[in-house]
Specification:
Layout (H helix, E strand, L loop, with lengths): L1 H24 L8 H24 L5 H9 L8 H23 L25 H22 L9 H20 L5 H7 L13 H20 L11 H4 L4
Helix pairs in contact: 1-2, 1-4, 1-7, 2-6, 3-4, 3-8, 4-7, 5-6, 5-8, 7-8
Length: about 240
């Protein structure tokens, strides 16, 4: 239960901090942080929570990461349903609170509400093929970073920094294309509150990140020459994944 609570709170923080920066701060007339600031906010949510609760749950905060770690034999398949449930619940609560807070502003409308999309819902107007491809590639790369940073051979204690910076970079690359998902729980959390067709496109932001995570795990396992000696550190002590 402690692990599921940690995943719930970590995913809550990711959505509240990352999506909150987009909903509440990115478009503010005088102090808008822009997409660079939003990218940094997402990275900081993972970095801070990985240090705070990663030693309890492994610090996944993302159904795709949990799946990728299971494929890489770093996480028990039997624990996957519980983690996914906690992650989705934490994200939904964060999005609900953000909606209540944001709706207190005069003349406010939800608009896209930090949701993901392609075509008319893409910030840059990118199509479905572009959305699928970038989400698969970036999620795969993210899993390689997570698995490498938490490897027994990696320097201890620095994994959250590498993982948080990787997520920042991912957002810098892909916000114009899909508004960046690489996390099905993050996408599901905000889609119901958007005044767009985000729910109808949500399948992309489950299928692509999950496929990318499995691909990234397979790539990482193929790069390991001696798997017998590749024993991961306890996640919170080596520092956790997203």
């Amino acid at each position: 239960m402690r692990k599921l609570t940690a995943e719930f709170f970590g995913t809550f923080w990711l959505v509240f901090g990352g999506c909150g920066s987009a909903v509440l701060a990115a478009g503010f007339p005088e102090l808008g942080i822009g997409f660079v600031g939003v990218s940094l906010a997402f990275g900081l949510t993972v970095l801070t929570m990985a240090y705070a609760v990663g030693h309890i749950s492994g610090g996944h905060f993302n159904p795709a990461v949990s799946l990728g770690l299971a494929v890489a034999r770093r996480f028990a398949w039997a624990d996957l349903p519980g983690y996914w449930t906690a992650q989705v619940a934490g994200g939904l609560l964060a999005a609900l609170l953000l909606y209540v807070i944001a709706s207190g502003a005069p003349d406010w409308s939800a608009g896209g509400f930090a949701s993901n999309g392609y075509g008319t819902l893409s910030p840059g107007g990118y199509g479905l093929a572009s959305a699928l491809l970038i989400e698969v590639v970036l999620t795969a790369a993210f899993l390689v970073v997570i698995l490498g940073a938490t490897s027994a051979r990696a320097p201890a204690g620095f994994a959250p920094i590498a993982i948080g910076l990787a997520l920042t970079l991912i957002h810098l690359i892909s916000i114009p294309v899909t508004n960046t998902s690489v996390n099905p729980a993050r996408s599901l959390a905000v889609a119901p509150f958007a005044e767009t067709a985000a729910l109808g496109q949500l399948w992309v932001f489950w299928v692509a990140p999950l496929a990318g995570a499995a691909l990234g795990a397979a790539i990482w396992m193929g790069l390991i020459e001696d798997r017998a000696n590749e024993m991961p550190r306890p996640p919170g002590r080596a520092a956790a994944g997203k």
